[in-house]
Design brief:
885 residues, alpha+beta, 41% helix, globular, binds tryptophan, binds zinc ion
Amino acid sequence: MSNRNDASTTPIRLSDYRAPAWRVSAIELAFDLGIDTTEVTSKLHLRRDPDQQAPLRLDGEGLELLSIALDGQPLPESAWRYANQVLEVDGARDGSLLETRVRVQPAANTALEGLYLSGSREAGFLLTQCEAEGFRHITFFPDRPDVLASYTVTLRADRDRFPVLLAGGNPDGHGELGDGRHWARFVDPHPKPSYLFALVAGRLQHIERNYITGSGRKVQLVIWAEPDAIGRCGYAMDALERSMRWDEEAYGREYDLDVFHVVATHDFNMGAMENKGLNIFNAKYLLADPDSSTDDEYRAVEAVVAHEYFHNWSGNRVTCRDWFQLSLKEGLTVFREQQFSADMNSAPLKRIEDVALLRRAQFPEDAGPLAHPVRPAQYSEINNFYTATVYEKGSELVRMVAGRLGREGFRRGMDLYFSRNDGHAATLEDFLGALGDANQMDLMPYLAWYAQAGTPRVSARGHYDAAHRTYTLTLSQHTPATPSQPHKQPVPIPVKLALFDRDGRMLPLHLAGDNATASGDSERVVVLDRTEQAFVFQHVHAAPVPSLLRGFSAPVILECDYAPGELALLLRHDVDGFNRWEAGQQLAARAFDNLRDGKTTDSLDAWCDALAALFGDSTLDDALLADLLTPPGEIELAERERVVDPSHVHVLRQQLQEQLALRIGREALQQRYDALLAHTTLELDAISQGRRRLKRRVLELIARIDPWTAHTLATLQYDNAPSMTDRLAALSVLVRGNAPQARAALLHFRERYADNPLAMDKWFSVQTQLPGETVVERVLALESDGAFTLKNPNRVNALFGSWARSNPDGFHRADGSGYQLLAQRLQQLDAINPQVAARLATAFNGWQRLEPGRHAAARAAIDTLASRPGLSRNLREIVQGMQHG
Ligand code: TRP
Ligand code: ZN
């Protein structure tokens, strides 16, 4: 395997960046496609930087070089060297043409990077994945994002085996070759970096639709999938059209080719890929139908379709200078995708979902051994930096800046950013510079956020002075040390806030020293940009309850010593939907502390009482109620502990829900469940989705206090479910409750969905949620199921990922068997797919804070894995990071 036993362990550093000595203005590629071997001819039109003397050096990994010629002359062996994944060529000049012919082996490529086969040899199809550095597995090239070239691509293949031939760009002819083969050519008029190259070839079916852009250009939208899946592409097509329209309206951005192709594959390392004109999707994020997809999956399809489409501007037209700038395209595109989803669905619910994800995935990363800045300073393997920090925290940074500029200011800034950098490879400085310049504002202080790892902690203290009727809010910030960054600087933290009186009404704000125009508003933003700052509000007639960080205005951990009654007041009355939920989360976390410490039940009582009251409030949205009734997850709760015992966290969280269910009452829960069940439909609108969400939550609460009833209801729900959402919810309650009915339901599910890989993934994943004591044995049993394979990333994540990430109690078994099992499988998986292995290995995150027994067991498993010879650069970097921080 080409990227195993890699000699280069020296890290790549941002500070070492140099502009390329050689560029490629145009590349002509020709593929003779075959499943076992494919031959690739490339002609590079070379440009030399007159100020640099470096010899021509091209990246190439695992390539069998068949021929090489410079300016039409075959090169003697003495004129080139191919070693350590670099081809060095003598004699090239500015304007030279280098022609190489190489052979690659798609079917043997299990790493799913470069050109590979998806599916079986008989029925599968060929495709490419080039981001971040996959193009070098296809041909010799300066494989870095600041080398932008025009692409002309010719595909040649057997017509029967590969009736469909696709590449990025506009179609530029096709025809027969005789001997049963045919050809097709594509020309991309927009210069692009190599990571955006893509081709697809095989027996695919399609659906298509014409789209007219705002300025009247006609674009053909085509979605491709294997025959058994083509019927499930309609929802993605609608989502694509909505995304295109939204980007025109919200950002004035239109699509810029005559065709836009989208392809679904079951064999993919990540979610999807924004290749220019030829997006490729993990089928999980493209296919959707009510019988096999849940509501959450529908929303994920809409979001990922939008995300990849939005990359056409934020990523493709304006790309990244180097991979350290990855968040320039990913953070920005996640932000755009979140805005879009908020517009298409419910904005507060979207915000709750995004912040919950940030806390579950990014905060632990930022607090663990792999913590890194949104713009890392160095990496060994770039694929390890497609992280929650670069994506999700990166999006929060864009949101903060956008919030500072306001709607119109941000749009003005984005227009300037796109026009200044169109067709170029840009940096985060270019981004903040354009946003600032368009608004006569200096945004460079926000660069500190990009350079510093760790989640800032903000403490808030309020003091009410009755004599002067002033309320002084003192805010301070502190970012804990992270590996290799012991000392942190203060960062600018926008805190959006409001003050509530004791009746739950918002007060007009008069900030001392404020200008008259903003004075009197009931909500405003203050920026904490030093270690500590005090803000004085005047004309405050009684001690207020502050609502801070509204809408989660900055990605920080807020510490504020609210009394339980104050949080309960915000939970009842806050008009900021996010902060209302947030007050409930804070209260639930304190209720958790009550249960742990056993000293008082003040927060527990306040939380249960407030939610029991809201449960009876018929004006409340079902989906929001479902979220309010969900306490922070086990991972988030564990983040608050100094020493973690995952089983104890699990038990306490169960008790928390039990207390809540008891307070609401069995009768009230069952009545609500029955009412929701009576309204069961197949519709996808927000109200129907909200009903299903609440129905599931209520059933889970019933299961906490009356398992027998819950299992009876769940069995009925399973048998009669019209949608996957209801079916899977019921199955999950049966499995998690170890119900006797679970067995039959699982057998039925397996039969029914045997031919549907995405549904089968759910079958694997739901069983990893068994209670802690039994799950390791179940994982072992599931591994020997005929449907399991280490070769398919979705299947690996459905089994090992769900187990190790979403069932902390079951993964962190006290006897250490979970750690041993994961470490062994990681080693096997690494030989097949290093990217997927490295990502899965991050499940060990947090091991340092485990209680002593588990700590020792986890360390032993990690050390053993680290000592294995021949680990990929990918896995090695993660495992060594786990060891040493
Ligand atoms: N750029 C892709 C996105 O939209 C991420 C991605 C897809 C990726 N496939 C990959 C990154 C393979 C690394 C390797 O987010
Ligand atoms: Zn992306």
